[in-house]
């Protein structure tokens, strides 16, 4: 025998509630399997839950769409910072600059290698040190590093910082949306459970196959065990979309 499976994520919960609401909208009062109390709960809760779902999905989409640009900018600024430091070290090796200038950039321990640029925090830290260090060195009368110049490094750094801040904001919005919909989950589950219990109780005196057929119209999802086949096996049972 098939068994019913309650929704296990927000999208599935919304579909279950929306299906029940559509059934209510398209039926006369005397034909409905639900109590007026449950119908009213569904009516007032569904718009709030719908908006919460839209908020979560939109915030997730915005974050994903902006992520490619963010990763591109992260890759480029890492390259510019790395190249600037490499050019600086090569100039020192050639004797064109004094090893003592590394102090301006806090690079005393990186005479033969590049400081770590693996994380966002690394990039922010060393980008700031390089930009400020070059400005301080130039103020003492030093010649500018070229290819890349600090101006080019600064442009890429500022673009990265802007993108980093935007992604951080989008992440905060997404987390806020998730928290908001999480607060509604318990009530959604309770309303769905009431709808399903009332529906099956209403149709309990008719044959099982017909009962399940009518119950599906209210959003109930039945799952057949392995090797069980039925008309209801063709019903969309995807609970993870």
- Find the structural class using helix and strand composition: mainly alpha
Say how many strands there are.
2
Portion in strands: under 5%
N- to C-terminal separation? 25 Å
Give the helix proportion (percent range). 55-70%
The global form is: rod-shaped
The main pleated sheet reads as: 2 strands, antiparallel
Mean pLDDT: 91
User: From N to C, what is the helix and strand string?
Assistant: EHHHHHHE
What is the number of helices?
A: 6
Strand arrangement in the largest pleated sheet: 1-2
Care to give the gist of this entry?
Helices cover 66% and strands 2% of the residues. The protein is mostly helical and 241 residues long.
Description:
This protein has 241 residues and is an all-alpha fold. The chain has one domain. 66% of the residues lie in helices and 2% in strands. The protein is built from six helices and two strands. Strands 1-2 form a two-stranded antiparallel ribbon. Helix 2 packs antiparallel against helix 5. The protein is rod-shaped.
List the helices and strands and how they pair.
Blueprint: E1 3-4, H1 10-25, H2 36-93, H3 102-105, H4 120-139, H5 150-202, H6 208-216, E2 222-223
Antiparallel strand pairs: 1-2
Helix pairs in contact: 1-2, 1-5, 2-4, 2-5, 4-5
